[in-house]
Amino acid sequence: MEKNAKIGLPYMSEYMYAATPTYWTYPGYDTTGNGNDYSQSTGNNWMYLPNEWYWTLSPISDYSKDSVFLIHRDGRINVNLVCGSSRVRPSFSLALNVNLSGGSGTESDPYRIEV
């Protein structure tokens, strides 16, 4: 097992690809107000946390250096200055040789992995 593994914030793309493929072409945020955005994926996105805002690691290239994407409490993707009281959510990537060996991913039955 690697001893220098790191835990960080999720990338925006990790949140977007956590939804079923149906939503992969949806915009993160619909500026027209039609709601045709990632808020539609909440029932099919395992990274969605109901009524919780949380930060991503993804910076916004065309905004100020202090802006990042964040996941809105309704499931859409927002842009905001890095400030305020949004949550952080730890994220890490597993090596290709790691396999799921059991568990359902709940608190009482966590996933078990094997190398």
How would you summarize what this structure contains?
The protein is mainly beta. The chain has one helix spanning 12-17; strands at residues 54-59, 67-71, 77-81, 99-102, 112-114. It has a three-stranded antiparallel β-sheet with strand order 1-2-3.
Q: What does this entry look like structurally?
A:
There is one protein chain. The chain is mostly beta strands and 115 residues long. Helices cover 5% and strands 20% of the residues. It contains one helix and five strands; from the N terminus they run αβββββ. Strand 2 (67-71) and strand 3 (77-81) form a beta hairpin. It is globular. The model has no long low-confidence stretch (mean pLDDT 84).
Give structural attributes:
two-stranded antiparallel sheet; 1 helix; 115 residues; mainly beta
Tell me the layout of helices and strands.
Blueprint: H1 12-17, E1 54-59, E2 67-71, E3 77-81, E4 99-102, E5 112-114
Antiparallel strand pairs: 1-2, 2-3, 4-5
Beta content: 15-25%
Query: Biggest sheet: strands, sense, closure?
Result: 3 strands, antiparallel
Overall shape: globular
Distance between the termini: 8 Å
Mean of the pLDDT scores? 84
Which spans of ≥5 residues are poorly predicted at pLDDT below 50? none
By DSSP, the count of extended strands is 5
What does the oligomeric state look like here? single chain
**Radius of gyration over alpha carbons?**
16 Å
Number of helices: 1
H/E topology pattern:
HEEEEE
The share of residues in helices is: under 10%
| Secondary-structure class | mainly beta
Spatial sequence of strands, sheet with the most strands: 1-2-3
